[in-house]
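User: When convenient, might I ask for sequence and structure tokens for a protein?

AI:
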Amino acid sequence: MFARKLEFDLMLVKKEEFLRKVRDEVLPILKKQAGFIDVLGLTEELKVEKALLISLWATKEHAMTYQREVFPKIAALLRPYLLKPFVVTSCVVETTISEHILAAA
């Protein structure tokens, strides 16, 4: 299993609009991608502008195809809500106990 980690800073005045955009437009796109398993959206408790999206993929190849072919469109959709560009990191998933994630992988 493979993960992509996006770190970014949100414009706080646009946070609700950002979340709506993710729910209404980004998640449906992700669900259609080959190898997509799940996504986790996190914000820091004390620095609420700091956010993290972790997407889980069946294979590195699925994640890289998404990165190359689809992510530029999603980044363009979300760019108006960011204080600075995404920082993208790729990770190998070494362990999980989630039955949902294990079944999808």
